[in-house]
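RETRY 2/3 - previous attempt timed out on the joint model. Re-submitting the same 706-residue input unchanged.
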Amino acid sequence: MNPVDKSLWTEKDTGELTRLLSAVVSDCVRKDFPEGLSEAQRQRLHTELFTSLREETVLDARRVVRRFQEEENRQRKQAEKKRRKQSMADETVQRLSLQQRLQHMVLFSCTLILIVTGLPIKFHDAPAAEFIIRFLGGPGVTRWLHRFGAIGLTLVGLYHLWYCMAFEEGRKNFALLIPKLQDAKDAGQQIGYFLGFKKERPLFGRFSYIEKFDYWAVYWGMVVMITSGYLLWFMERAINQFGKVAYDIAREAHSDEGLLATLAIIIWHFYNVHFNPKKFPGSLTWWHGRIPVEEFREDHPLEYEEWLSAQKLEEGLELPSETASEPAEAVSLESPGGKTA
Amino acid sequence: MKSSPLPFFTYLLLLGGLASFLPGGLQAQEDIRCLTCHGKPGFKKTLPSGKVLELFVDPMQLRLSVHKERKCVDCHADVTEVPHPTIPQKVNCARCHFLGNDVGAPQLKRYQEYGESVHGKALAEGNTKAPVCQDCHGDHFIFAGQDVRSLVNHKNIPQTCGACHLEIYAEFQESVHGQALLKGIKDAPVCTDCHGEHNIRKPQDSASMVNAGTIVNTCSRCHAKVVIMEKYGVKTEQVATYKESFHGIANEFGMLKAANCASCHTAHQIYPENDPRSTVNANNIPKTCGHCHPGANANFAKGRIHLNPKDKSAGIVYWIALGFKILTISTLVALFIHISLDLYHRSKNRRKVLQDSEEVTKKVS
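RETRY 2/3 succeeded.
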């Protein structure tokens, strides 16, 4: 008997069990109490034994079936998860390291806090400003939330500088982020391609001019916002040292750059990673750092080629020349299935 | 105008004239009976305590006042026989002056406001020095506020309040507002313009016009109005720039420890910026700012306090603001164009793909 096969405990099963139990009980009564019992007594003994055993037996049987079912479901889910993970590993590429993702997470959490607590000050006349400040607990709370965000932003900024100098990965990525003449050419070709003047899209490496713009906008924003922000935070010392004009400049720059950064993030970055029809409503790349191979090949063809040849070297496999232009096949070669073949 | 130079003459004039312009001879007769004693100049009574009561009443004063149609006993209602054996009570104006009265007194909400004011509360607590109606409006010689003879006329208010608030009166007289009033400038604010009239409350009371939460509005009533300020060469943008400052924004959101107008300019000792006595004079700025920003030095005075970044006079701040404006607009325009082109290309591509697939299906079928 294999209870796992039964998906549900039914009335029919209960009937079956009851019949079996009845047979066993009458068997026992007949065999174990043969002497001195009248038929009526025998009958009564049978009934008593049967009723006291039936309830528990059925319950126990049900419990066992349920436990088997649960175990089965759990195993099925695990297998499914494993399969999905495996297929994701096959179809996606690890493009962002844990270091980079953590920096990005701290950066965007702090930036969100700063925007939410900062913009209501710039647009204090708006009814929404009043609402947000009240909702968060009044100006006494939001000013400290803003400073908390500021500390986080400063720390991640300083860590990023350290990362760009001290880590091989950081140095390599930073070098790739430096704007070059090629980026201007790429931008021109991209626009020409959008308008239909150019047949071919520009071939991007690890960072396209779009991503470089994003990075350096944040870089510039961090320098302006952090400098002016600390001048405002420690305004007594700032004014005593540099005069009130320094405070005024910091105030103006902080206010204006805050708006510029917010708009750039909402319009540019959000379009490129969220509202773009191809990406909507966004991916989990920021969390697991992986992007689909298809997207990788399309958006970063040069980096893709590099990655492909590196994979080949690692696995000691020759890349057939015709598969270079056939990504689907190339990927299938990458999969463990291809390896065993 | 406490006593008339010709009391006897006015008395005769009154006798002749009363019958013609007052209704009812009895009324006039009652007043005449009162004036038998109170109409004598120098009529006074010395109390057992030694206090001398000046009891002469110039009947002309009442006849010229807003109460010209009232007779003595209308207000001194506890006098029922002449001569009265006891000292009459202080007159209670609320006999007529209440909302809903039917004797012709103005129907004003202010009567109730007094009870909630700092003066009314002090009175209710039993403070005998607390001012009642007569202390500000006068007793027999009461005029409407617009009348220059009124004790509560705009130009007389400082003296009236100053009768009790001596030190503040002296401070106010010296201040830019007090000096303007002395020059006869009608726009100059007096006590009641900032503190209210019947609704005067303690500055700590959030309903007070001079509370930290309301003072900005109170000052703005004049200082934000170009019509008033341009006459005296005072900038109205001071209000707007304050509201844009961190002080103003904190105040707006209810953080009342932030500086308001009076925190820097003081309440009564307001002087022009170039006056060495002014708290906002460059020499005094470190001390003034130092109240809240400990350790403020002379650098606090380097640069304008009420700075308008949209104005060229703001110097480098103006150029920075302009630079950011240009940078923001040009960046966003560029990004917007890029996004639009991207979307245009995508939609065109999609249409092409759809067309191609339609052709393919046609061919197949």
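The mean pLDDT of chain B is 86. Closing ticket.
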